[in-house]
Amino acid sequence: MRWLRRSGRAAAPVLVDDGSLAVLASSSDPAAGEGPALAALAAAGHPPGTPVLLRHLFALAGPPDAAGTPARDVPTGASPPAHRDETDTEARGRASEAALRALVERDGYEVRRLGPERLVATRQTVPTVLDVARERARMTGLEMRFPVTYLGWQALAPPPAGRAGDAPPRDDGR
After folding, report:
1. Whether 119 contacts 148, CB under 8 Å
2. Ordered alpha helix ranges (H), the chain
């Protein structure tokens, strides 16, 4: 049995994406790298070595005609269905969400919908350039396996003390 050793430090608080956190750093440009975004995190007053909630944003890929069945696909003399339980777009979105969820939740991410066409995968971590670059590469690689588009990442944390009004606005696609 492994014995836990107390170091005298309090455990890091669990961060929850409940609207109380502010976006302190973000990156949507893979060419820019993680360094400038993480420098912005430090410039915002976030203490080094303190965890953030890293949120990865995805857009669900839709079919060319997201409105449903085109009129030309309805047989002549037939009328379109009066009521459909779900459109193909909704079914594909749910399938994409389920597949993404199954793959990344086992690695400690929480996946949830953010509106009808967006997904987020979040995980609490202490951000380093290398770790965030690895996560971005992994999330970008999911585009090849699932019908999703990776939009970038955001580092969320409580606003630094005394700067609650200075925190950047929350950009979660709502």
Report:
1. yes
2. 35-43, 88-104, 129-145
- Asked whether the beta carbons of 139 and 150 are under 8 A apart, the reply is yes
Selection from 61, 81, 73 nearest residue 143 by Cα: 61
Q: Is the dihedral of CA 150, 155, 158, 160 positive or negative?
A: negative
**Counted domains in the chain:** 1
Task: Tell me the residue range of the domain where 92 lies.
Answer: 23-62+87-158
Q: What are 136-150's pLDDT values in tens digits?
A: 999 999 888 888 899
Structure tokens at 153: 């990442």
Question: Is residue 173 predicted with pLDDT exceeding 60?
Answer: no
Tokens, residue 81: 């269905």
Instruction: Tell me the two tokens of residue 54.
Output: 């890293």
- Alpha carbon of 124 to those of 2, 12, 32: distances in Å? 24, 10, 23
Confidence band for 51, pLDDT divided at 50, 70 and 90: very high
Q: pTM for this one?
A: 0.71
* CATH at 32: 3.30.70.970
